[in-house]
Each structure stands twice: as C-alpha cells, then as structure tokens.
Design brief:
This protein is of the alpha/beta class. Helices cover 52% and strands 10% of the residues.
Length: 472
C-alpha cells in the first residue's frame, strides 16, 4: 500500500489518542507503566501492521501508557564490493522532550520504531532494500523483532547486549522465522562470542578497531560458514579498498562523498559536454532551440528526458516525441530541474549511482525546505545547490574548481564553498540530517524555524522522489 495515506489515516485516531497518552506516560508510576507497556507490546505492534493494511479503527486500550514522538529517521546506505546499495541502516532520534528521559529507553526506542513504520511508511524508508534496525536486549527478549517482516528487516544486536539464555533463544527463534541477524561493533570482544554462531553479518567499526584487528577479524573469528563481514564507518577509498582485500563484503561510511583529489585526471570530454549543457540551461534567458539541438545529439539524455515528460508526473494527455516540444511543455523551471538531475545521474566515470542519488536527495530536500526557511522564491536555486553539493566527489575535484564550471548565483556558490550566506544553513541541515548528525540538525533547524516533523517529512518525501525517479 502506498505510503502517502499514512499521515491522513493516522491524524485523528492515532495522533490525538497518542498525544493524550503522553500525560498517562508521564504521570503513571514507573513500575505500573512498564508492566502496561510490556503487556501491550505484541498487541500494539500487531495493530501497527493491521492499520497499515486495513485502516482498522484504533483501539485506545492498546496504547494506554505509550508515547509516540516526532522522530528523525535517516537511512544510511550499505554497499557491496561493486558499490551498489545492498541495504540501508535506519538511524533514529526522538524529539527533545522529557518523554525520552523517562528511564525506559527500551520502550522509547520501540515507540520510535512503530511511529516510523506507521507515519513514514516502510516502502519510503527501505527503497526496496533490506533495512538494518537496532534492537535492545529487552526488545529482543520480549519478541518485538519477530513482529516485523523478516524479508525486510535485518535485526542488529548491539555490542552491549549480554548473551543470556533468553537472548540467545530469542535470536534462535528469529533465525527459524527467516530473519537475518547482524552483530554490531564487533572488535573481538570475548563476551560476544556466543553470538557468532547465530549471526549472518558481523559489523566491524573501523573507528574502534585497530589496523591489525581490521585485518585479522575476518580471518580468525570463529563465525559460522557464510558469515559476511561488514566494514562500518569507512571514511576513505583507501580504507574501502583495504577492507575488500581483507575479506569484507559490505561497507558503510562516508567514503564515497569525499573527492579523490590526489587521483584526479582531466575531466572526461563527455563530462565537459554535460557541463556545457548545464551552463546553457542555467543562463538567464536560455535558447530552447539551442538546448534542443544539444540534447538531441545525446541519445541517452534525449531518451531519459522524453521518459520524464511522458511520465505520470506531468499528466499529459498525448505522448510527446519531440525534444523541443518537451522543453516548451515543461517550462524553464522544470527544464532546469530535470536537465540538472539527468546530467548528474548520467555523468561518465566509475562513480556509483548511489552517489548521484544522494545528490538528488539533497537537492529535493533543500527545495522542500525553501518555504519554511523563508526562501520560497528561491526553491530552484536551493535545488541546484543541493544537487551540486556532491559534485566534488562525483568529479574528484575540489569544490573551488567545480563552482567555476557553472554560472551560479552568488548564494549558491558561497554555500557550496561553505561561506556564510542565506543558503548555507539549509545545506547544512540537509547534509546533517542525511548523516544522522542529530545534534547539528537541532542546532541549525531552529534558527531556520523549521519544525522537526517537517524535516522528517521532507526527508522521506525526498527518498520517495528519488526512488520514483530511478524507475523512469
């Protein structure tokens, strides 16, 4: 079922009832509250699944004592050795009120999970890929993980989890149900050894493991055959390549978003041609005849542009087959947006599509934040600012060189170079949200007067927009 209905479907019965439940959560004695929560975990999660499927009327008694908070939810890609996105990890942060300092972090975490699955939608969060989700020890022992779909959710066991008989039995039960299990932040800790025969993925934090540990763990860990090792918090291409040689097969980190300036050669002729087109389309008064002529010489770009203009997004009654006709129908604002997107996703070279997709997510989110940030008349400029913010990594060039390739407004140019101006806070909050740097998000967003719920919705909308674009 499409995610678009979630907000409307949940507004009255779910939203208002759970808001009223906040007072119950805060005023009820802790021992009674915890008993109520634990008693209702399975019912609540089962209902969450039913409401998504059937729009059933919400039963108030199932949520007595629960608090559903506004949440930040970001997804971080997990890459395979070919730098294709193999999965995502969901990263959560709750609203900053005393609901999360109540002393019961296990069930505050569950509230975040359920709220994210209902309000945002699993299809928007997953992008059709498996998602890694952290579960605390108590949630594992209470069987909460088993209420999520095993074909979608990879259960992550935190490194602080104690291998008690109850936890090991819970994990064995999850395996029987078809779940994949990942062990987080493993660096050879002896107390985690009982988990090694149960997990499918072992995650090694490259900021915690020494260089010798990174090399030895895949070769010496007493894991079961077929266990996959995941290198997380990989920060450079050199670390990625070294991890591949050591036997790691999955990778997380911001290594793709950094340019390899030392290895940069001349910009390929095809990329230069793409930038010439970008220059043309962003001129103050672009010539549609000249644009149509340039685009028509690129078979791939012509095909993709016609796919876009004939898609449901434009709702045209008759099919468009002429590039010039397509440009006229789209109008200059849409032409600039789509030519920019199609150019970035079509850049030649060895960069993975995931990097271009990340740039488009930034572009769309920056555009959506224009109105609440008081920049409603400059949404298209913010779109371009977000889109170009990863161009240094896509071209392996310093951003100071990238900005000289295009006729940019002074605010876009300054924001890309990190210089103070009205666009910079928008770009900062977008990149901080993308990287789950929640403290920075909560520093910058209030200054822009952007509410937390709007940020979460803008991010989810941007993910869905990019996922839809990939299907064109």
């Amino acid at each position: 079922m499409k995610a678009a209905w979630h907000r409307a479907a949940c507004t009255r019965p779910l939203g208002s009832i759970l808001y009223e439940s906040r007072s119950i959560f805060k005023l009820t004695p802790r021992w009674h509250r915890q008993a109520t929560i634990r008693h209702n975990v399975r019912l609540l999660m089962e209902y969450a699944r039913r409401i998504i499927a059937k729009f059933d009327e919400f039963n108030r008694r199932w949520v007595e004592g629960w608090v559903f908070m506004d949440v930040y939810v970001a997804r971080q890609p997990i890459y395979d050795t070919n730098l294709n996105v193999a999965a995502h990890e969901l990263l959560f942060r709750s609203s900053l009120d005393d609901a999360c300092s109540c002393g019961d972090l296990d069930y505050a975490s569950l509230a975040l999970l359920v709220n994210s699955f209902i309000a945002i939608g699993m299809d928007r969060l997953s992008g059709g890929k498996p998602v890694h989700v952290n579960f605390t020890q108590k949630l594992l022992e209470d069987g909460v993980a088993s209420l999520f779909p095993p074909e979608t959710v990879v259960v992550e066991v935190l490194e602080t989890t104690t291998p008690s008989p109850e936890t090991l039995n819970a994990l064995a039960h999850l395996k029987e149900q078809g779940f994949r299990i990942a062990l987080d932040d493993y660096t050879g800790q002896p107390h985690l050894e009982p988990f090694l025969k149960l997990v499918d993925i072992i995650k090694v934090d490259f900021t915690l493991a020494s260089k010798s540990q990174r090399a030895l763990i895949p070769r010496t860990t007493a894991a079961r055959p077929g266990t996959v090792f995941l290198a997380e918090k990989v920060s450079t291409r050199d670390e990625f390549q070294l991890a591949v040689r050591h036997g790691y097969r999955l990778f997380q980190g911001n290594f793709l978003s950094r340019p390899e300036v030392a290895k940069a050669a001349d910009i390929p002729p095809d990329a230069l041609a793409s930038f010439q087109l970008l220059r043309k389309v962003h001129e103050p008064a672009p010539d549609f005849d000249a644009l149509a002529s340039i685009i028509s010489r690129d078979v791939s770009l012509s095909y993709r542009l016609l796919r876009v203009v004939n898609s449901a997004a434009f709702g045209l009654r008759s099919r468009v087959t002429s590039i010039k006709h397509a440009l006229v129908l789209m109008g200059i604002a849409e032409v600039r947006r789509w030519i920019s997107v199609l150019t970035v996703t079509g850049l030649p070279g060895d960069k993975p599509r995931a990097l271009a997709d990340a740039a488009i997510v930034r572009a769309r989110m920056a555009e959506l934040l224009a109105v609440p940030a008081g920049l409603s008349g400059r949404a298209s400029e913010l779109f371009l600012t977000g889109l170009l913010s990863l161009m240094d990594a896509l071209l392996d060039r310093p951003m100071s060189q990238v900005v000289d390739l295009l006729p940019l407004t002074e605010d876009t140019r300054a924001a890309l170079l990190g210089e103070p101006n009205p666009f910079l806070p928008v770009l900062q909050v977008v990149t901080a949200y993308e990287g789950a740097q929640w403290d920075q998000v909560e520093t910058v967003a209030p200054a822009l007067r952007i509410h937390q719920a709007f940020l979460a919705e803008a991010y989810a909308n941007s993910l869905a927009w990019v996922d839809d674009l990939s299907k064109l």
